[in-house]
Amino acid sequence: MKALLVALAAVAAAGCTRVVDLDVAEGPTRLVVEGRIELRAGNGSGHQEIRLTTTDAFDRAGPAPAARGAVVTVNDGAGQVVSFPELATRPGVYAVDGFQPVVGRRYTLTIDYLGDRYQASHDLLPVAPIDSLYFVFEEEGIPQGDSGFRAVIDYTDPAGRDDYYLWELRVDDVPRIAVDPGNRFRIISEDRFYDGGRVVGYQPYDEEVVDPGQRVSVRQVALSEAAFRYYFALFEQTTGGGGPFSAPPASVRGNVANLTDPGRVALGFFSAAEVAERVAVVPAR
Fold first, then answer.
1. CATH code, domain carrying 93
2. How many independent structural domains does the chain possess?
3. Residue 63 belongs to what domain range?
4. Does residue 230 belong to any structural domain of this protein?
């Protein structure tokens, strides 16, 4: 009887729920930079965008606050400094038309915001073309999830150089990206094990189902080694899962330096890249 009472007490204790209110201290507000100078076929307008936001309170819902009123310029590596005015209809987005970048040049972003000057530089790297984009229907299963069509690409990696890739998926002009641990092994890649090889049947978004009639775009973006390491760390942080072997929570440092106050670092990454793109409509099954 005594053993039974002890067991019942243990079960009762396990079933209790205690609500604990945590007072999470707010850190300093930091500038967040999302920007890429792109060279891509079909971009006759030369439209380029830099998006600036700030960090927010830990428990705040909604989009990140826009960083308004900044002065944003990009040096094109050939002696020209291009101003990026803020769009009146899209706060925090700084854009320009008629900016056609060149492979091999170094582009330097300068941001003046709230008394601080931030700067980042990146060389515009070439990317291999996508040879083909097509769709494969897969039945529901554990590895891939729901049944349906997946976007598949073939491409040939250039031989004799270090290449790093990022893939972006758009469906009916809406970007798609799943928060998944596999992101750091699927939607970014380095050619260490397939330099100069032909890659066939690759599904960078193998869990994203697309439907017949939808317009699908796959963009293949050149990354530098530094950008590859940044994305790898970012995906590791956002999809770590909290297990005993997960990466400890920490800010992922990009390449944007605060020249005025180095201790007040910015977040995000600025890059320049050639982008290859293929567009196709999902067929009927």
1. 2.60.40
2. 1
3. 26-125+250-273
4. no
**Does 136 reside within a domain?**
no
- pLDDT, one tens digit per residue, over 48-105 is 999 999 998 765 667 899 999 999 999 999 999 999 999 999 999 999 999 999 999 9
Is residue 190 in a domain? Answer: no
- Total residue count of the chain as it appears in this document: 285
Predicted structure pTM score: 0.85
What tens digit of pLDDT does each residue of 171-214 get? 999 999 766 666 778 899 999 999 999 999 999 999 899 999 99
